[in-house]
Amino acid sequence: MTRSSNSANDPTSSNGVERAVSAGGVVFRRTTHAIEVVLVSRRREQLWALPKGTPDPGESIEETALREVREETGLEIVILEPLGEVRYSFTSRTGHRVDKVVHHFLMEPTGGNFEQHDDEFDDVGWYDVHEAQRRLTHRNQLHILDQAVELIAMREPNG
Predict the structure, then answer these.
(1) What is the model's pTM?
(2) pLDDT tens digits, residue range 83-133?
(3) What is the DSSP letter of 96?
């Protein structure tokens, strides 16, 4: 696995804007009639999202994606290829502007089960890709899901 640089170890830029990095992915499976992807949700916030999280010190982006998806879903997964990034800005609790980049990867499950997911999310499940597109809370993730669908369509089943 290649090491990727991540700016999580250098959280501020020269202009005082904080920088944040996360990584995660689109985990998919084929069924007889559809492509399904994993979504995580928090009932209280009515949040539906792709699994992702923050790097631990010294972790590559790929290692972060694998760990976070495993923790949040309970699934063992492998990375197939990069999907792209989502970039956005927000104001932190301390009032500082944060520029965030989230790296996403196309992933396939190799084992595990949803009962093993951590307590960060209430629910984890498989959703038909069209239902997942409808449910995603953060619409800036839609292009990542669309990219995943395109790449999955080009892949041979089980290959």
Answers:
(1) 0.84
(2) 999 999 989 888 889 999 999 999 999 999 877 666 766 788 999 999 999
(3) -
- Tokens standing for residue 97: 């502007």
Report the half-sphere exposure of 109 (CA within 13 A, side-chain side): 18
Single out the residue of 33, 97, 107, 96 nearest to residue 72, CA to CA. 107
The CATH code for residues 7-154 is 3.90.79.10
Structural domain boundaries of the chain? 7-154
CA distance 59 to 8: 10
| DSSP-derived 3-state class of residue 29 | strand
Token reading at 52: 């992702």
Cα 116–chain centre separation: 18
- Closest residue by Cα to residue 60 from 117, 26, 9: 9
